[in-house]
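Quick start: what a row looks like.
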Amino acid sequence: MTITLALANNNAMLTVRFLLELASLACFGIWAWRRTPAPWRWLLAIALPVAVGWAWGTFTVPDDPSRGDPGSVDTPGPLRLLLELAVFFGAVATLHFADLRRTARRLLVIMVAYQILAHDRIGWLLSH
C-alpha cells in the first residue's frame, strides 16, 4: 500500500495558487510601470499582464484537475510546467528588476514553498 500526500488539488492550495497567479500578473504590471517610459507606461502595464494571463489560460493540459475551464490549446504537461515556472518565477524576476528586491526575495520563498507543497502537481504535469 502506497500513501501519497496530494496537496495541490485541495481547496486551500487551489486558493493559494489562484492568489499567486494574481500576484504574478500584478508583478508583471509593476515591472512594466516602473521600467517603461511615460508615454508607453500605461499601455505596457496593462498589456503585459493581459498577455501573460492569456497564455496562462490558453495553453492547458487536458483534464487538469486544477482548472475549471478547458483552455483553447491542448498542451503537453512538461511544456505547461515550463509555462507555470516561467510565470511564477518570472514574477520574482520582475520584482527584482523593478528594484523591489526585498519583496522579490519574499515572493521567491513563497513560490518555492508552494512548489514544494504542490509536488504532486509537478509529477502529474511531467506524466501528461
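That is the whole record. The chain has five helices and two strands. Helices lie at 11-35, 38-58, 77-97, 101-117, 119-126.
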